[in-house]
Design goal:
single chain; alpha+beta; Aminopeptidase; 3 helices
């Protein structure tokens, strides 16, 4: 995964289409993080924005969970998106993260997925 993702990540960070925030402990160790992918997207009558914000890679190291780190990361990402004029953000919630996202106001949508690599 690292071999495949590294060139993409380097390009996306350089062109600003991916932003990432890190949470550090007092020693400077990364204990969590989260990012947002900005994708070109057609405007529609309910949302004139021509970019879509997809929140990705929200993670907290297991020994640092239940301390509000993921919530702080999410609040930081959401504030950044609002400041840039986004009217919405999407994410795919893990079972562990769903409660946090619901508390922040995220609601399930009608998104569907088709996998080509599964029978």
């Amino acid at each position: 995964m690292v071999e495949v993702a590294s060139p993409w990540l380097a390009r996306a960070l350089a062109d600003g289409s991916y932003r990432h925030w890190l949470a550090l402990d007092t020693s400077g160790r990364v204990v969590g993080g989260g990012g947002v992918l900005l994708c070109p997207w057609p405007a529609n009558p309910k949302d004139p924005c021509t970019e879509r914000a997809v929140i990705l890679n929200v993670y907290t190291e297991p020994e640092f969970r239940k301390r509000g780190i993921a919530r702080l990361i999410m609040l930081t990402i959401l504030a950044w998106l609002k400041q840039r004029g986004f009217r919405s953000a999407n994410l795919h919630a893990s079972d562990d993260g769903r409660l946090l996202y619901e508390k922040l106001g995220f609601q399930p949508t009608n998104e569907m997925r088709l996998r080509f690599d599964e029978p």
